[in-house]
Structures are given as C-alpha cells and as structure tokens.
Hints:
This protein has helices at 26-43, 69-86, 119-130, 141-150, 152-155, 167-172, 198-207, 211-225, 229-237, 243-252, 257-267; strands at 5-18, 52-57, 60-65, 96-109, 115-117, 137-139, 158-160, 175-177. By secondary structure, the protein is of the alpha+beta class.
Amino acid sequence: MKEQQERIWLCSVVRIGIVDYAKLSVAQQAAIKARLNELSNLVASGVREDERMIVATDDGVALCFLGDPEDALFAALGLRERLREESPTGSNPVRIRIGIHLGPVKLARVRGGDSMPSEDGLRCAEQVMSYAEPGQILASRSFFEVNASMTQVYAQMFRQLVSKHDTRTDALSVYEVVSPGQGADTTRFQDSPRIDSPSTEMIAHTTGWERAELTAAAVAIAPYVGPRARAMVKSAAERATSVAHLYQLLAESIPSAQDRDEFCRAQGIT
C-alpha cells in the first residue's frame, strides 16, 4: 500500500527568500525564519485551510494557494508591508525578496493526511524570486496574465521588466508588482473586460455594488490585511451607503492604528 498519493494541481506559489541568508549567524537565521513563518501564517489566515499550504525552505518560506490567484497577490503584498512596518529605520531590518508563479504543482499526500508540494513545483517561483531586488515582488508571465485578465485594477499593479544584462529574464518575462496606476499598459484588456473572480462576482451580486468598485477597495486594503481583504470588503459593502462610507468602514476594520492612519492618508479620508 502506498504511503502517499500524488496529484497535479494548479497553484499560485509565493516564494519568499531572506536576503544574504548564508551570511547571517545561526541565531539570526533561526529568529528571522521563525518571524517569517509567523507572518506567513498571518497573511494566509484569511484563506481556507484546504486551499493553502506553507512550506519551510532552506532560506525562507513558500506559500501555495489552490484557490483564487489574487490570494497569492494579497499575501505577498501584506507580508512585505508588515515587515516594512516592523523595521522601517532599524539597523538590522529583515530583508526579503519575493517571487510569484502560477503553474502546475505536484502535491503528495503524506502520512497524516497533509499535502506537500514537490520541489519541482516550487522551482519556477524560486527562479522568479532570484531576479528580485531586496524588498521587491516579481511575478511570472502566467501569474500576471491570469490576474490582469480579471480586471484592469489588477493589470495596473504589474510592470513588465526587461533586463539587458540577464538573458534569462527576457526568456522568463517577469513583472514587478507595483501600486495601482503605476504598472503596465492595459489597453489590450480594455475591449474585453473579465470578471474579477467568482467570489468578487458573488459579493457584487449580493450587495448591489459594481465589481470594479469592490476590486479597487480590496486592492487598497490588501497590504494591511492580506487575504482577508475580500471578506472585509464584503462586510463593509453590505453596510456602506456610498464609496466614501465604504472606505471609512474599511479603515475602521484595520487593527493597527498606524496602518489605519496610513490607509486614511492614502485614500484621502479625514
């Protein structure tokens, strides 16, 4: 009888690596990896347990999402922002680089019922991550195209990078994750807009809001709450009477006072 069963799943993999990991002391490595694991669990906590996996790696961690690709996008943004907040001016800030890839991953069902991705399944995300600068989030072409086809709000969060010094980058076609409005040319998507995701479409149907408005709100709050963004937007949309009221309710749902202040400044909330 086999002790494990293998299946192929389409996964969004967020690969997070600690910069200059090998140069750190053993104590520093242990402390940073422990904190990174805590934050990874935190930013992924809004995703159903059967749709997410967190895997320790030699120099960091990998997050695998089996559901909406935007879960991976929100988790990556949320984790980076939390690390920035923890040591904005510290002498020894935790420096990471992040790569995201969407593709087939072989999952092995191991003893105890847990699933674990194969190393091959994480390799593409790791390659994308290897091109990132400290503090940078890069995504593969497959991940970009799936998210960009959902809505222009997501498409505008990516900027294609072309490296004249690394031919592998040209072959891989990596995209930097940026703030909305600072990304790629999205004219190719304007003639045939697509729905955001099954969950966003359902929220729009039940609350009467436009999908684009809900998506924009989720993108705005995602860096502060991670994958919980959609659930918070749904709750706020059910009570809000205007766009301004929607963002005010979202601000009130952010736990950290510092995060709330930053969110309010960014959204022009007084």
